Structures are given as structure tokens and as C-alpha cells.
């Protein structure tokens, strides 16, 4: 069986497992954690699509997350719109943000792009606190409505969108787009020499990344039922990057695994919540030095070879 | 008005120290050191711990703190950064990890409440009609002294010229037989030491909390981008610009808005003039 | 027969250095033209100006009767002007086949059928088909050169600019590459502009040679005339290539 077939089969197995686990365990606590994990998985996968493929690490992914979350908050709390509107509006707003910040920053080299994006997110966080009359300041917006009264059903909705996200991103990554994005990582000048409009692909991939991040933001907002400036925080972007490093950059599905792993780990260490960042940082260092390809993706590739 | 002048000068001087250290290690080794803020925080906490726990006299504690942080900087470079030199992003991530780690350690050891560091100079002075604490004036003069010493070192000593040479052209410097690796460690130590000195000087009047290094890092980065990556003169000019703009906005509008200035400045510079105003090497 | 490429008064200055000075020439379709000159003569800068990687200070360039200056590099490629780089720049981390595939996605050739198949065909053209699945990271120099050519060919150019294709190659690799270039010219009807300062190879391939020194065109003509041209001889005798060029000049 071809590699791709095995991949999709594996994804199906994971999907079924993710669907069954909360239902079987029947605990509201577990369902809640898993919902959060799935949101992080969407954020990690969307980050990986742009940054993992092109190699241009984006340290301000939280910009799109916050944009999506606050859009959901505004629509639901300030305008009383149904949560379902957020699903359409949040990605669009996030994409708009990506256009505004993408154009000036994408021509910058690696580390500078990373830090420029970080600055963008930091600015948004400050602005959110400054314009507190509109955004609720530090307290943010409260009283959002969930999609469903049943937590389990909402979990399935989130799972559905995660599956849609990963499927879409994988399909695009396996298409000529993916080859071109990886070529951009290889050498931009050569891409130009090959007749490829590099700027277009960079911006487009950032937009796609932003759209799914914003979508995740909306789902998160309607789960937590509140949004705050923390959603723009630098540390959120960093955590997501660590999840991607654990998962394996460029694979899209690896980061999903990385996100779920780390969120579960965080919960398991709840008793030691002061050490949480310690653990994250230690993991990051270990990965950088010993497992630069990550954990999840190489593991899957090993399994896949055995299965074939 | 006089207040703005003096407070602006103090803050610009401190920013200059941070920016110069940041741009040094960048110019020489092309390292965007996200742990730079940590050195600053460690300086402040160092002098606190050495006076409060080890009961060392203040000035000795300050000197020891700076030295220890400088050595820490060298260690970080040798042990953590050097193996990852091939990838600028890996270096970025590892310095980030160090920054996170340091913040966590400080949180663990000292807790999240602000610490009190005694002033070295207790008197208040009247400068041009404004009341300024002696400590602030000390910070200003200390910064000027350290930066002048640095300038002297770079211009007048062989080692300093070597560092200058490398920061301008790393490859050529290698051909001239200058041992880059050792110089990278040295410059990192220097950069860390200057940042720590800044932390020591401001500790008495700034909030000493584990996360105190983040904002100064962002500002150092902002200044260096505006002034030009790798340009020391640019860093000083940028520091003055930022320091005074922040002070003016803080006095006239609000403190919150003043904090955005630095970040907004980065974005604008990257958009309009990516090489910074004095830089030769564009950010793209 | 109207010229495929017409260059008129091209100038480029870097600070105090005039890298390209008032360069003008024309290329007839189907010709192979060489650009000769010692290091620093401005040859690669000329290529960079023609392919959009650098902006010219003044001058006019018309390709296929359309102005070329000011366009982004990828647009120029999609007009039919492709180039290779002096220091090969493959897409690292990808296979040989994928490297050529990327060029098959260029708008100019995107609809011409299955990219993978076309890419394979290009690799066959240059003799790299057996290595299609290898990662470029481990490819020897000579193969990287062929890969660059395959990638350029994939965009179906009318004019191909080759920047020192023989540089760094051992004597056993040079002749096959020269044969390949000649064959491509014959089979595809390509117009070729080739920078090279290995006189011997240039003389074999080029119908006409443009000699440059200090950014200026100092002579144009058939190879046999050029090697005897006093300014060309002066340019070479004055530089380190004396051994190589001396031999070739003597042979002429």
C-alpha cells in the first residue's frame, strides 16, 4: 500500500479513537481537556502548514488566534449573534490580519520575520488592554454562548473541524503547493528563477494558516465562554511552536499529536503547575539537541514502514 | 519639562546599555539573543540575593553579580548555542528556552512578589527644578561610564578592534586569523555583563519580578532594529529616540501607550527601512 | 531577422564601482553567444540585470520586442528567459525530480501536462534520470550543474543564460557538459548566452563572443578574432588566467 494510503488509514484510526475516548470515559472533565487539546491541535497544524513547510517560523501566531477569538466574542456578546456566525467571521478576520502584517514582514529573513510577527502580536495584546471600553481590557469579554449545551456534542464539533483542517492542509501540502512551499524553504532565488511568484505563495500560505488559526480561536472562545488578552500573548505562540517541535515540523499531523500530548501532559502535571513551564522548556531543549525531527512524526513514519 | 529631560536621559542610558549589548552579540556572531532580558533580570536578582541573603556590601554585591552573569553568558554560548550555530532559528529557540528557564528558576526561588533592592545612593537631588533620586542619577552616570569604557575598549585595544572587525565582516576577520569562536564567547560574556550592570543599576527603582526581562528585551530589539543591526552608534541613537519618546508619551498621554511605542517602532522600521537608520545589513 | 534580445546602454553602479557600463548588444534567435572576461568584468552583474535579480540604473532591454527591465525575476522567466546560477542553488531537502518539478509549476508551462512526467523528461534530456529520486544534498558538482540546466529547461525558455557552467568541473566532466549544451541548442532551437572564462570551451560552443572588461564591452566578434583582439589580450595578460588563456591564445 502506498505511503499516502497508509497515512490516511492511520488518520482514520486516530480520528475514531479521538471520537470514542471521551464517549467511553464519559467524564465531563476529560471531554473538556480534550476539547482544549483539539483547539491547540488546530493552532499547531495551521502553524506547521506555513512555518513548517516554508521554514519561516512565525512567532506571532497568537495574533490570528486572538483575532478569531475576539471576533467570536464581539459577535456573540456585543451583537448577540449566534455562535455559528463566528465560524465564518473569525477565519475571515484572521485572514485580514494576516494580509496587513504579512505584506511588510514576509520579505524579511528568518529570525526577523519571526520577531516582527511577535511584535505584531504583542502590539495587539497591548491595544486590547488599552481600548478596554471595547474589549473589556484585562478581563476581556465574558458570557459567550457555547454551540451546544452538551459538552460532548461540542467536542464532536471541534473534532469535526480539526479533521477538516488537517485534511485540507494535508491535501494542499501534498499538492504542487506543498512542493513549491518546500522549495521556497530551499532557496527563494531559485524559486524565482524557476518562474514561481514567491511572494504570492508566501502570503497565501500565511493567509491559509491564519484562517485555520482563527477558526480554532472561535471554537476555543465558544468553549471557554470568555476571551481575554492572554489569547494574544507571546507565550501562547511559543507553546504552540514547542508542540510543533515535539510533533515534527512539516508533517501537519505531527503537530496535532504534539499538541494533544503536551496538553495532556500539562493536565497530568496540574498538581505541579508552577513547574509547567519548566517542563515545556526542558522538552524544547531536549528536542533541539536530540530530536530535531520531533517525536510524533518520526514515530509514525517508523510505524508506517513496519506496517507496509 | 526638566523632569522629562532627566528621566528621559536616565531611561535612554539604560536602554542604550541593553541595546548595545544586544547589537554587539548580533553584529559579531549573528545571534539574536532572546535571553538578553534574562541577563538583565539576573543582574537585578543577583544584587538582591547577594545583599539580602549573603549580606555582602552593596557595591561588592553589584560587582560580583555582574561578573557572575557575564560568566553565565559565556557558559550559555559555549554549551547551548555553539552546537546549534548552523541554524539561526535553532539558536533563536535555544536562547528562548534559556529565557524561559531563567524566568522559571527566578520564580521558583524568589516567588512572584517584587523584591526590594536597597539604593546605593539615598539622597534626592534637585536637577534644573526637578526632583531626581540619587539612584537614578547614579544609573545615568554608571551607564555613561560603562558605555565610554566600552567605546575605549573597542577603539583603543587590539581585542576591541578585533571584535569591531568581526562585527563588520566575519569572513574577512577569519582570514585575518582572528579566532572567532573564542571571541563569540567573550562578546557574549561582555553583552551579558553589560545587561546585568543595567539590571543592577535600575534594581532599586524598577519592579524586580521574574518576568522583568521581557519588556527590556523587546525594547532592545526595537532599538537595534531602528538603529541598525550591528551598529553601536545606531543603538545609542535609537536608545535616545526610544527613551525620550517613551518618556514624553508617558508624561503627556499615559504609561500604557508609552509601552507600545517600542513595538510599533519595530514594525514601522521593518516596513519602511529594514536596514535601520545606521545599519548596513538589511534584515532581508 | 529581428533580434531576440536587444540590450541598449545598460548601466549599474555599486557605490563607487561602475559594475556595468554602457553595455549594448543584440542576440539573434538560435545563436550561441559567449560573454568573456576576467573576474570582476561585470558578467554576472549583467546576467543579474537581465534576469531581474538586480535593478539597472539606466538602459533599455527588449526581449522578443517587449521591454524587460523592472520586471520581477519570476515574470521574466515566464516570458521565456531562463538562467542558471554560478553557485548552484538547488532546493535542499528535496529530491532531484522535485527540484525540476517546481519549475514545471511555473505559469508558463503549468498546463503543459503532468508535471512529474515533464520533470522526468527534462532529467532524461540532461542525463540525470537515474538519479531522479536522490536528494540533491548529496549530488556531485557536475550533476548539480545539469540539474540547474534541467530546471531552466523545464520553463521552456526561448533564451537560456548560462552562468559559468564549467566552473569547478574536472576535465572529464567538461566535455560531456559542452556536448549536452550543443545538443540542446540543436534539438530545442534555444538561443543561448553563456558566461565563461574558460576560453577553450567558449570557443568551441559560441558563434559569437562579447568580451567585457571593467564593466564595458571591449570587443565583439567571432571567437577566432576575439582571442587576437588587443584589448582582450591585455585584459587577460593583466590577470591571473595567463596560463590558460595564454595557451588558448597561442593555439589560435
Gist?
The complex is a heterotrimer of chains A (308), B (284) and C (252). In chain A, 78% of the residues lie in helices and 1% in strands. Chain A is an all-alpha fold and 308 residues long.
Overall description:
The complex is a heterotrimer of chains A (308), B (284) and C (252). By secondary structure, chain A is mostly helical. Chain A has a single domain (3-307), classed as ABC transporter involved in vitamin B12 uptake, BtuC (Orthogonal Bundle). Chain A has helices at 3-25, 28-54, 62-78, 83-105, 110-130, 132-135, 151-173, 176-186, 188-193, 198-224, 234-247, 253-268, 276-290, 296-307, and strands spanning 141-142, 226-227. Chain A has a two-stranded antiparallel sheet with strand order 1-2. In chain A, helix 2 runs parallel beside helix 7 (151-173), helix 3 runs antiparallel to helix 4 (83-105) and helix 7 runs antiparallel to helix 10. The longest helix of chain A has 27 residues, at 28-54. Chain A is globular, with a radius of gyration of 19 Å. In chain B, a hairpin with a 2-residue loop joins strand 1 (124-127) and strand 2. In chain B, strands 1-2 form a two-stranded antiparallel sheet. Chain B has a domain at 2-111 and 129-210. Chain B has 284 residues and is mostly helical. The model of chain B has no long low-confidence stretch (mean pLDDT 84). By secondary structure, chain C is of the alpha/beta class. Among the domains of chain C are: 1-18 and 34-81, no CATH class; 85-157, no CATH class. In chain C, 38% of the residues lie in helices and 23% in strands. The interface between A and B is large, with 37 and 36 residues.
